[in-house]
Amino acid sequence: MATKLIAKPRHTLGEEAFVPAITKGLGLTISRFVKNTFTPRDHGEIATVDYPEVRRTYPERFRGVHRLTHREDGSPRCVACLCCSTACPAQCIHIEPAEYSADSPQAGYERYPKVFVIDELRCIFCGYCVEACPCDAIRMDTGVHMPASTQREHFMYGKETLMSLPGQKGTFVTANPRHEPGEAGHPGIDREHGH
Amino acid sequence: MDIIFIVATLLKIVFVLGILFTFSPVMVWAERRQSAMIQDRVGPVRAGINIFGHEIRLLGLLHPLADTIKMIWKEDFVPPRADKVLHAAAPIIALTPALATIAVVPFGDMLYLDHLLEILPRTGLLSGEHIRLQVANLNIGILYIFAIAGTGIVGAAIAGYSSDNKFALLGGIRAAGQMVSYEVTLGLSLVGCFMVYNTLLIENMVQWQHDHVWGIFVQPLSFILFLAASIAETKRVPFDAPEGESEIVAGYFLEYSGMKFGMFFMGEFMEVVTGSALIVSLFFGGYHVPFLERNGFDFGQVQVLMPHIAVIGLQTLSFLIKITLMMWFQLMIRWTLPRFRYDQIMNLCWKVILPLSLANILVTGVVILWLQG
Description:
A: 3-stranded antiparallel beta sheet, two-stranded antiparallel ribbon, elongated, B: mainly alpha, 3-stranded antiparallel beta sheet, 12 helices, 7 strands
């Protein structure tokens, strides 16, 4: 069996003498040292963030804590269709739907969530609920991650909590317009004019 | 032996120990912050004291204090089958040479107590009480340093031996082997300097450099070799095989915790401080300030006369600044180079540094004879 002999790599005299090589290395480290020491923090190349005081903003598509978006009048956009709780692989969304009162224009056409609870401890932050929602009512664009706590109850986020969280841009509504019954663009479906 | 001599000696000891005990915690801080700056990080900046609602952080300078408090309160663990006496004695044995070496390093010119506010003549001895700004004026001079530094091996070796741990034993053996080897070159690399300075006393070497030129310009090779050997003696990167984390966990002080570990840790930094003081004295003119004579600055045409006490103050300040720069440089080297393999350490010592120092002695001798005609 033929053995292929590989020659041991030879160092040049400059490398063997160490001093030129060390000088070269020192040049690099000293230049980094001088640059980082004498440049102000916000202009330098130090990537460290002073975490609790300074927080890096999350990217736009970061899936943080959920929020329930508002309509113009401040009520939830959610129509309690249960799409999100059906899509949820962790089964962490609990919704109790309720009918609007008879004199409301929404009565008989859509429902609202009487109870909307997300168990944030069970949630796996997959974003399927956001995908499933037909009304753009649930979003994960708050840009905050789950605050820590020692009590399980603190992780049961109710309707009020979810509606009190603004999006990363600070608004409670979404950019997608919602067409109320009677407005142009509304599909015109209600109890009288059904499919 | 009069009272002034005793008081002055005590004050000098306090001053020198003050240098060691303030520089070494600052070194701990500097090592962490400096490495952070080299590696595009921030390093430790968070330890702070809350005074009247304001958090004072001092760029992280309080971290060594926090470390010390932590180390004092940590459990002092001794392995059950360790040699209790030697295990307790080793940190002290390791720390002592680091403290003792600086005794012969001068940090200022002769201080004339009776002429403090006068402008002295440039040369010549003066009447009245005079104090040498150096803790011990030994007639064996630098040989004392070699002797004391030689005992540094004992602490590491005993620590490794007494810990009842194979890694610690390996570390102790490595430390002993490395330090004994570099002991030889540490001495031989300086022989060229002795020949040029024509003395063994450090104060006379500083005076020679003041009268002629800094030692690094007459003995550059000797400087490089001595720097390498002294880094090897302090067992720091790139010569830190005795405590090589990736191979033998922490080497000879593996089984030490709490303040005993702290003593090894501090001892290492004190060795860097004394090593820097020695290098500054031997190669960078010691306390000597460029253009500063005993009566003030002399720039050729312009002369600035200064009282004796100001000259001495400037000299001590310049000595401290030079030490600081030298320590900065040693930290720079520590964060630039990777660790040598153990056989590379030995090859470097016996096959490179030793022959080069012998050649340096030969060439220096030839040149001196040639200059003398």
